[in-house]
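F.,

This is the one I mentioned.
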């Protein structure tokens, strides 16, 4: 059997990455990595990116950290920016908010010096998320608007979908329903136009909570969230599935379907603990605490809330944690009122 040339592997890996076929990309590159034959920095980066999507974030972060010296050398400027972006994502997913912000600010500086509007936009979009978690909503919206402006100039539809979704979430949490839904619709439109099933699923997942919180339409919320779940499963994205399980649990709680609510929320917690996704863990624990309160388990609710509060505090996201608790308290109260 003819051994593939490095250039053949790189071309194939780029094609799979562009198609977002991450399981196939892992299958192609993992054996080479295990055999110590993954010498090309770009291939190692592509494997790290794929590992993150398929749920092997710890391996991805280790790979990204090993890549730092070679990517910082002259001639690898583009890969350096990509590596910083992925490092920020991986640290954010694991609850290292300060580490994520540091990586994204370095990326913003490097992209600004290079005149790379794509990565300037990505940095602003990502930094806006941190501002949202810290309760700096005006600053978050300013970051998202800078990202939207850059993505419009580039005509980058996937980026526009991501930024519009983040604006929508911010408006939803500020209580501006009309503005939130308008941006969710923009996000869905751009995700479809870009052929980005993962971004479409994320927009549907977050819009489901808009339908629940602001339109009081649990049935439409459930239908929308289940569409997102089916998309993530088809894409083999366990991270997205874990997030949707939390959303489905909240919706089931609002409808007083307690068994289903606990099943969904337990699934979200189990995934979050196993994958070290601390933000998801804290949010799911707050939802479980609300379910405990509905069922009269005050001690259980207190324990979960204490754990969640500790995580939010450690993340530097106490403001977001308080907002989540208020949301879950309102959902629990609505169930009690109905009964």
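My design for it:
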């Amino acid at each position: 059997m003819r051994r593939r040339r490095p250039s053949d592997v790189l071309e194939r890996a780029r094609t799979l990455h562009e198609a977002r076929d991450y399981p196939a990309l892992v299958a192609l590159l993992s054996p080479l990595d295990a055999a110590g034959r993954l010498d090309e920095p770009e291939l190692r980066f592509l494997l790290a990116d794929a590992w993150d999507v398929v749920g092997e974030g710890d391996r991805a972060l280790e790979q990204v950290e090993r890549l730092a010296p070679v990517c910082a050398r002259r001639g690898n400027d583009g890969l350096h920016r990509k590596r910083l972006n992925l490092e920020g994502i991986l640290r954010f997913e694991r609850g290292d908010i300060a580490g994520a912000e540091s990586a994204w600010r370095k990326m913003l500086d490097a992209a600004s010096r290079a005149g790379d509007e794509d990565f300037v936009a990505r940095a602003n979009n990502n930094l806006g998320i941190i501002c949202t978690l810290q309760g700096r909503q005006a600053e978050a919206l300013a970051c998202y608007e800078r990202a939207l402006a850059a993505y419009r100039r580039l005509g980058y539809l996937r980026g526009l979908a991501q930024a519009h979704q983040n604006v929508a979430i911010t408006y939803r949490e500020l209580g501006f329903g009309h503005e939130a839904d308008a941006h969710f619709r923009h996000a869905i439109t751009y995700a479809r136009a870009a052929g980005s099933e993962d971004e479409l699923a994320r927009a549907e997942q977050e819009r489901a909570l808009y339908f629940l919180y602001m339109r009081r339409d649990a049935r439409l919320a459930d239908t929308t969230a289940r569409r997102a779940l089916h998309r993530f499963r088809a894409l083999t994205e366990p991270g997205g599935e874990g997030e949707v399980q939390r959303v489905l649990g909240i919706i089931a709680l609002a409808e007083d379907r307690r068994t289903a609510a606990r099943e969904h929320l337990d699934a979200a917690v189990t995934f979050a603990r196993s994958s070290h996704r601390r933000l998801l863990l804290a949010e799911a624990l707050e939802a479980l605490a609300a379910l405990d309160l509905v069922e009269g388990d005050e001690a259980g609710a207190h324990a979960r809330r204490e754990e969640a509060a500790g995580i939010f505090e450690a993340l530097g996201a106490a403001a977001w944690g308080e907002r989540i608790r208020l949301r879950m308290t309102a959902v629990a109260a609505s169930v009690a009122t109905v009964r």
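The radius of gyration is 20 Å.

Talk soon.
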